[in-house]
Write a structure and sequence with these properties.
This protein has five helices and six strands. The protein is α/β, with parallel strands linked by helices. The protein has a six-stranded mixed beta sheet with strand order 1-2-6-3-4-5.
Length: about 170
């Protein structure tokens, strides 16, 4: 469970899609990430603005466009000059302009709040999407659910079924 200001939601942070030498493990992670993306109400796609756009970012962006789900595009580490330069490169992914973000500095939180607002309102804390919400907990294993429980961010009591499910993908 997570919150940003008065907006409460379930957040699932997927594993990165790179850096796995074992092909079977990489395949399993990609399959699980795909399942989580399909089940999520909104996708938070995060790239590293300092490193620029990688081939894996381009592939993932194509998969995200094909899902036709609400997407919030974050360019993390945008708090430096190199990160600011990387923001312009993000446009080539065809996802629109990213939110300049810095997880370590809190940059972009107001913009993220604003981007989430159409989907989570005070009147309708569940979400304003027309589609039925999928239960992400059905997709991930009990071990991973326990891991998520250990990393709660300002959890808020409430009906799990009424929560908006966000999936964080990228790097």
């Amino acid at each position: 469970e997570a919150s940003l200001g008065d907006r409460h939601f379930t957040l699932v942070d997927t594993a990165g899609l790179e850096g796995f030498e074992e092909k079977d493990l990489a395949r399993q992670i990609q399959e699980q990430t795909q399942k989580i993306m399909v089940a999520a109400d909104i996708i938070l796609f995060m790239v590293d603005a300092r490193e620029g756009i990688l081939a894996s970012d381009e592939k993932l962006a194509a998969r995200l466009r094909a899902l036709e789900k609400p997407l919030i595009f974050l360019a993390n580490k945008a708090d430096t000059n190199k990160g600011q330069e990387g923001l312009f490169e993000c446009y080539r992914l065809g996802l629109g302009g990213p939110i300049a973000f810095s997880a370590s500095q809190g940059l972009g939180l107001a913009d993220l709040y604003e981007a989430l607002s159409p989907y989570i309102s005070e009147e309708n804390p569940a979400h304003a999407l027309e589609e039925e919400s999928s239960d992400i907990a059905d997709i991930i294993s009990a071990e991973e659910t326990a891991e998520i429980e250990e990393t709660k961010l300002e959890g808020q009591a409430g009906a799990e079924a009424s929560r908006l499910h966000l999936a964080v993908v990228g790097r």
